[in-house]
Amino acid sequence: MNNFWKKLNKPFFCLAPMSDVTDCAFRQIIAKYGKPDVFWTEFVSADGLAHSKAQKKLLIDLKFSKKEHPIVAQLFGSNVENMKKASALCGKLGFDGIDINMGCPDKSVEKQNSGAAMIKNPELARKIIRATCEGSNGLPISVKTRIGYNSPPPKSFGRASKNKNYLLDEKWIRSLLEENLAALVVHLRTRKEMSNVPAHWDLMKRIVEIRDEINKKTLIIGNGDVLDLEEAKQKIKETGCDGVMLGRAIFGNPWLFAKRSPLKFKNYVIKKLKVLIEHTKLFEKLLGKYKNFAVMKKHYKTYVKDFEGAKELRTKLMETKNAKEVEKIVKDFLLFLKEI
């Protein structure tokens, strides 16, 4: 089985998995206007995929097109057998790799001993990785996690606390790197910090050093607060990591990963609103039977901002019920733009 990670040119850039955001409609839009080097699906419950009744409902979250390769299926779960079954299914569906979510701070996920809860149970985490490898039929396995769970009191570390090393759970990172991982994605915050503080990119050098100490070829990918590709390249240069994963920067900017993006402000607004219509139609076509239209509306808050009339347009769009209504409202606004 080919390991696509080995074929990536460095530096490389990935789109972060985000629940109710990076669905198949959204990814197809991104693939068209600015494709990242690697796509991730939204995270999917391995427990659900392992049971036939729940599996039918969840398969829509694993839907993807040929244009999205290489694409990684992200799973979460703490049941060894179910992770094995779910990874086998992902192999049959044609994914290029499988990622295990060991960083999600959602309480409902943690109650299942999954996501960030794994940080507190390295032994189980390693069993989950091995089970996923076993079931994947040779697909490369990666893990997305955080630098630690709880932050110890910096005072107990004296002056050394100034460099924030006390935030990094080195035992956790090392335990993951000792497994057979093709890549390790590190969100540079602790579970306790959520996204409420700036990402600790100053800790990435140490994570790379730990990888090198173990003499592993595991690729290290940094995640957190990166706004564009230029900043991502700078982070890689400064820290020595192999790639960067960008998440929130994609909101309202389908050209994030493109080599070229619209430059003139007025034209940029027009182009963005036309993509909004296209995205909405695609969402309705692919996911209309499975997801509430309100999921699509989340994107309007980021597509429609920072230009004259944005607030009024956004208010109208939030009241829509389908793609037809959205198209009419946006086209009427575009006619208004041409007149001014």
From TrEMBL:
Residues forming the catalytic site: C104
DUS-like FMN-binding domain: residues covered: 15-331
Needed cofactors: FMN
Molecular functions (GO terms): flavin adenine dinucleotide binding; tRNA binding; tRNA dihydrouridine synthase activity
UniProt catalytic activity: a 5,6-dihydrouridine in tRNA + NAD(+) = a uridine in tRNA + NADH + H(+); a 5,6-dihydrouridine in tRNA + NADP(+) = a uridine in tRNA + NADPH + H(+)
Ranges in coiled-coil conformation: none
Enzyme class, first EC level, given as a word: oxidoreductase
EC annotation from Swiss-Prot or TrEMBL: 1.3.1.-
Binding of FMN, residues: Q74, K144, H187, G247, R248
Pfam families: Dus
PROSITE patterns documented for this protein: UPF0034
Keywords attached to this entry: Flavoprotein, FMN, NADP, Nucleotide-binding, Oxidoreductase, RNA-binding, tRNA processing, tRNA-binding
Entry similarity comment: Belongs to the dus family.
PANTHER family linked: DUS-LIKE FMN-BINDING DOMAIN-CONTAINING PROTEIN, TRNA-DIHYDROURIDINE SYNTHASE
Role this protein plays: Catalyzes the synthesis of 5,6-dihydrouridine (D), a modified base found in the D-loop of most tRNAs, via the reduction of the C5-C6 double bond in target uridines.
Protein name as catalogued: tRNA-dihydrouridine synthase
Species this chain originates from: Candidatus Nomurabacteria bacterium GW2011_GWB1_35_20
Lineage, highest ranks first: Bacteria, Candidatus Nomuraibacteriota
